């Protein structure tokens, strides 16, 4: 591994940025990010926006001084032209612009296609990774898309057996053993075998994308006080503790099961490089409290870097010109850092 610092101003990898639902704030936050760059911001990466230029052009009227983004044939043309942001000319076009703030089947189908097109650029090695603006799952469903969301689309497209959702806010990085499932279903889904597999994936991908080479991982208990030695449930003793022990036997620096209310604050202070939480709302409130406007969603386990804004389409404010690009800027910045770390470790990327 080279010790040379990776300089985005010199190396400037290209990321594909899927535009998100055009009935929401996706186009606006992309334009706000591009505007900030024009005013002297430092780009973490070059961005190839995968979406319909018409949606961006419509939202330009919301932002005084927003730049007109050039349409380019692909990432190679973006790099050759020395552009920080451009729009992919090969992206699927909308049949018509949707109304702001409304579920629209055409917008759902197009925003899904843009995610697939962005993933295909990454899988072909033409971009170093993917950043995603928010989509609306109801619009996807209306547009005939049966896949639940971004993560599942990217996993299927990449053909990988397992991915892991990681939320990053400040110094806190927390991955989820289970994601969008009812709380009543969580105990049956938390198995020793699956936890070991997730800890292996978490250790490897934290090392690859963030560092250090042997990350220190905290593992949350499922029950209050990590079960209090069986008084509050036996899952921590019978399922999670054996998984931690098995992971440690494989060289993973895992610790637990630990009470979530102790290890998550400790991780936010730097005591751990990442936390594996057992369920969605065990982890996300802490991330969003620490970084309410700059939290980033990362998908681990893909053959390319993928980050995302950690907010929705905000239909309630779409078209009003008041959306913030802070989470998008954080997602792009983190993707650039991860690409740099991967490059230093000799992992393929552009």
Could you explain the architecture of this structure?
With 350 residues, the chain is an alpha/beta fold. It has 2 domains: 1-160 and 303-350, Isopropylmalate Dehydrogenase, CATH 3.40.718.10; 161-301, 3-Layer(aba) Sandwich (Isopropylmalate Dehydrogenase). Helix content is 40%, strand content 16%. The chain is built from 13 helices and 12 strands. It has helices at residues 8-11, 26-38, 53-59, 75-80, 105-123, 137-142, 150-158, 186-189, 192-209, 235-249, 260-268, 280-290, 326-344, and strands at 14-18, 46-50, 71-72, 85-88, 129-132, 164-169, 172-176, 216-220, 253-258, 274-277, 296-300, 305-309. Strands 3-4-2-1-5-12-11-6-7-10-8-9 form a 12-stranded mixed beta sheet, with helices on both faces. β1, α2 (26-38) and β2 form a beta-alpha-beta unit. The longest helix is centred in the N-terminal third of the chain and has 19 residues, at 105-123. The protein is globular. The model is unreliable at 1-9 (pLDDT under 50).
